[in-house]
Design goal:
The chain is mainly beta and 358 residues long. Helices cover 13% and strands 35% of the residues. The longest helix is centred in the middle third of the chain and has 10 residues.
Length: 358
């Protein structure tokens, strides 16, 4: 793509591991819908017309984020999202193969490294030529080995200094020129090291399952540490077919009432080899918030709930809500990277429909 061609989106970050963690939380379906606005973008996937998951990636996650909807082709104008405010928010939407994007981010094997991992130490035991042949599925990749880095400092690699800072992990620059163009990634371990350019095919967006959660109709609201829910789901047998979420009103004050009251939150797993129940005690150290006016119980397919395990592994807290029709909403608050003077929170949300009553 020519350098002077207008781009709808240009975004760069010196260390993309936080960005990769957000995408990894919804990477259970290959085809993903991307919607870009001036505030950032969302990546949404769905499964079996019963489960949808969205990663909310705000613009402040990146060091540079420029959105120019007017750069799209005049014959294919950007889509307008509905908004009750007077000012309409312009959104550009397309679909991508999400697994290909994750492969491209991991082209140097650094997408999942811990923040303290030393890139130079890892590369000391590798052959520099290995970075030349990386190729993401469905994308075109051009590698540049370390041997040519010094020769090209005055050319291509010299421009990397304005996007990537040395010694801060693996950097990424992402751009999109509009409908009919690929999503282009420039990945570099350091400004003078190997680079890879990946072009990922994009498609026109298709209608997606819309699951609207009505907060006013919520019958159960719980906030707890993600580790509590992650450990419980991880212990359930993978062959489990159904998972029932049970909520009860908090007990009245008094030690006797609390000891005899049913748990505010219970998980019941039913499978071929029997059933398992896991109770969460009525303790603020476990359940930070529990709002439930009357006993509720809804059953879901466990394979759908288990899709949230990746997001649970990276998140700090989980907000679990169920409305009066059984629609389940799981919001995962992701840890914010240390970026002085900048708010960098992001979150992932799952929506899941209940099973019909037998």
């Amino acid at each position: 793509m020519p350098e002077d061609q207008p781009r709808v989106l240009t975004a760069s970050v010196h260390d993309f591991r936080y960005f990769a963690a957000l995408l990894r939380g919804v990477n259970f379906a290959n085809r993903a819908s991307v919607s870009i606005t001036a505030d950032g973008f969302t990546v949404t996937v769905e499964e079996a017309r019963c489960l949808t998951a969205t990663a909310f990636v705000f613009s402040h996650v990146f060091d540079e984020f420029t959105y120019n909807p007017d750069a799209a082709r005049p014959s294919q104008p950007s889509q307008l999202s509905q908004n009750d405010d007077d000012d309409e928010l312009t959104a550009t939407a397309f679909e991508i193969p999400l697994s290909t994007l994750m492969d491209c981010l991991n082209i140097f094997g650094t997408a999942g490294l811990a923040p303290g991992t030393s890139q130079k130490k890892r590369k000391a035991n590798e052959d520099g030529d290995e970075s030349d042949g990386g190729r993401g599925r469905g994308g075109r990749t051009n590698g540049k080995g370390k041997g040519r880095a010094d020769e090209d400092d005055a050319g291509g690699n010299a421009r990397l200094d304005q996007w990537f800072a040395p010694g801060k992990g693996t950097g990424m620059r992402m751009s999109y020129a509009g409908p009919g163009h690929p999503l282009t990634l420039l990945v570099a371990e350091e400004s003078g090291g190997p680079t890879a350019t990946c072009e990922i095919t994009t498609w026109d967006p298709e209608p997606r399952l819309e699951l609207a959660f009505d907060s006013d109709a919520a019958v159960l609201k719980i906030i707890l540490k993600s580790s509590w829910l992650r450990d419980a789901l991880s212990e359930i047998d993978p062959s489990t077919e159904k998972l029932t979420i049970i909520g009860n009103p908090p007990p009245p004050p008094g030690r006797a009432a609390r000891s005899s009251a049913p748990p505010c939150f219970r998980l019941r797993a039913v499978g071929q080899f029997g059933s398992t129940e896991m109770d969460y005690p009525n303790d603020r150290e476990v359940l930070e918030t529990c709002e439930c006016a009357h006993p509720v119980s809804f059953t879901y397919r466990f394979s759908h709930i288990a899709r949230a395990l990746r997001a649970l592994q990276s998140s700090l807290k989980t907000s679990l809500r169920i409305d009066d029709e059984g629609l389940l909403s799981l919001q995962f608050m992701m840890p914010a990277p240390r970026r002085p003077g900048r708010r960098s929170e992001a979150f992932i949300e799952f929506w899941c429909l209940p099973l019909e009553n037998d």
